[in-house]
């Protein structure tokens, strides 16, 4: 296996005059991208940045993400991508925890950072340093297991942890996604999801095939469809939240997706009923992958032509991992039994940055303990049940919130749901359902309970059903169940 830089160098040589990156009115060919990349490496080395030093990046989706990725790959620097939607105090924690030497990003975001750290503003300042820098740089020996990135977890259960990903991890992810999305040399990759997270893993597939990448800085359902049609985007990463917004939009026109071959859908689970609706409108375009920052994107893969007959599964084991389901003692469970999903292989992270305790807890004998509960059917397909920490224990019985959410989502008026356990004096926890309805639709508590009665055992039925306007979500589109428990978590009797 090679490094990101070695693949990119081949693309530079082979596709010199082909557009590599498009962003608004900016178009850089592979030849121009090569020159800009080397000049950034040269500049940073001139400022004393050396192999293994960390570069923090704080900006919304824009073309500089791509060239800074490559500058880190060629210079041996470790990039620290920061989600621009987070609070400045969270950014500062990540900058300090990673020990970043330089911060590069958009001026309005950098102005909110009070730390004493050298800052480079994208725009005039950034373009000037590229213009004034030389293209030659000090070449660095980079190995597959050298760190490429420290990517922070969403921190839903505490302080974010810095996941260390090597060149081997990133290349394994890119190869996995290339296979999953059936990528070939004539594809165009689109990015509307944050390039600090899921969409970034897909971006590295471009170096394998010399593809054009088109970057969009914001998501508006109608404009987005027009844009990807105009740019002939054929492969794109979307989180389920965006998929729902697209297909449930009043003016959704599936014809505008005619150039799209594969939509890589990942980031959080999607209800089978909502996925079925999307497939009905879009056809066999969705490729579902299951992974974590700790094992980027492809622990399992559900090919687009299989998805329609396996709506409640997230696929079979990906090509760069071993996977099994184990009990609390680490012993593999029988087929069909629920346990924790664990995996190992070249896709799996190196550990958590400067956090040996968390690393020891999560990585055991080379196996990554995902914290996800699931079971494997007789064909080898993985079915996720829930997060281990979100299981509701009521009257001594384990209840999986996702199972109840799947049932509630069957109602045609439901947009999205969240089921959590709230404190209960009698049962310990009670099943509590919070429901957001589609615009212009109505539903009643009685209808929801009847739906549950048809599909669930009586002990799983929600004791509390509440209709609300919206659910709190992370900047990656995940529902924040921890926040829901804070808001609604009084003891009930």
Question: What does this molecule look like?
Answer:
The protein is globular and about 70 Å long. Helix 1 (4-14) crosses helix 2 (30-46) and helix 2 (30-46) packs across helix 3 (64-75). The protein has two domains: 4-382, ANL, N-terminal domain (Rossmann fold); 391-488, GMP Synthetase, Chain A, domain 3 (2-Layer Sandwich). The chain is 31% helix and 27% strand. The mean pLDDT is 92. It has a nine-stranded mixed sheet with strand order 2-1-10-9-11-12-13-14-15. Strands 16, 17, 19, 20 and 21 form a five-stranded antiparallel sheet that branches. Strands 4-3-5-6 form a four-stranded parallel sheet, sandwiched between helices. It is built from 17 helices and 26 strands. By secondary structure, it is an alpha/beta fold. Residues 14-353 form the AMP-dependent synthetase/ligase domain. Belongs to the ATP-dependent AMP-binding enzyme family. Keywords: Ligase. It holds the Pfam family AMP-binding. This is AMP-binding protein.
Biggest sheet architecture:
9 strands, mixed
Rounded radius of gyration (Å): 23 Å
Q: Describe the oligomeric state of these chains in a short phrase.
A: single chain
CATH class of the largest domain: Alpha Beta
Q: Name the CATH superfamily classification of the largest domain.
A: ANL, N-terminal domain
Q: Architecture of the largest domain, CATH level 2?
A: 3-Layer(aba) Sandwich
| Structural class computed from helices and strand pairing | alpha/beta
Organism: Heyndrickxia vini
Family: Belongs to the ATP-dependent AMP-binding enzyme family.
Protein name: AMP-binding protein
InterPro entries: AMP-bd_C, AMP-bd_C_sf, AMP-binding_CS, AMP-dep_synth/lig_dom, ANL_N_sf
